[in-house]
TrEMBL record:
Family, similarity comment: Belongs to the metallophosphoesterase superfamily. YfcE family.
This enzyme's EC code(s): 3.1.4.-
SUPFAM superfamilies reported for this sequence: Metallo-dependent phosphatases
Top-level EC class: hydrolase
Xref: Pfam families: Metallophos_2
Protein's name in the database: Phosphoesterase
Cofactor(s) demanded: a divalent metal cation
Occurrences of domain Calcineurin-like phosphoesterase (ranges): 1-152
Highest taxon of the lineage: Bacteria
Claim: Cell cycle is one of the keywords in the record: no
Entry keyword Methyltransferase: no
Keywords: Metal-binding
Length: 166
């Protein structure tokens, strides 16, 4: 099962649309995961129509229309892998221990908010992933997103992709 993991798209405030390369990944993915800060419901509608399966949450920049359609925390089982998705996890310091306490029933936690790519593991084995942002890099060197595979309950081939400058 192929995953595309994105967050903090801020469309149309930071970009008019997702980059073409991200849309190409949407077409290849079995599951698209979006960790919040969509900003406009039109992107949610477009991703829903173009994704085989979409798992998303709302972020702090998402208004009532998005909050009415998306949860604060999403959970899914993907081929035996227990996935949790949330927008904010708090400060970087202590994140692994804090998230391991808050998501004890997850194997992988996808989050956003910081626009900073993140890939760590808590002592409990919880994998924490932040894809950065494909549209608003802030102080990062590049716009980014993640891809991964799920195989028999295991997360494999996690790759951070940097997009070329726009």
């Amino acid at each position: 099962m192929r995953l595309l993991i994105i967050a903090d798209t801020h469309v149309p405030k930071r970009a008019r649309d997702l980059p073409d390369r991200v849309w190409a990944e949407v077409a290849r993915a079995d599951v698209v995961v979006h960790a919040g800060d969509w900003v406009d419901v039109a992107l949610l509608d477009e991703l829903e129509s173009r994704s085989r399966r979409l798992i998303g949450v709302y972020g702090n920049n998402d208004g009532p229309e998005l909050r009415a359609r998306l949860p604060e925390v999403a959970r899914a089982e993907l081929d035996g892998l227990r996935l949790a998705v949330v927008h904010e996890t708090g400060p970087a310091k202590g994140r692994e221990a804090r998230c391991a306490r808050e998501y004890p029933d997850a194997d992988v936690l996808v989050f956003g908010h910081s626009h900073i790519p993140w890939d760590t593991e808590a002592p409990t084995g919880l994998r924490l992933l932040n894809p950065g942002s494909p549209t608003d890099r802030r102080r990062q060197p590049a716009h980014t997103y993640l891809t991964a595979r799920v195989d028999a309950g295991r997360l494999r081939d996690v790759r951070l992709h940097a997009l070329p400058p726009r």
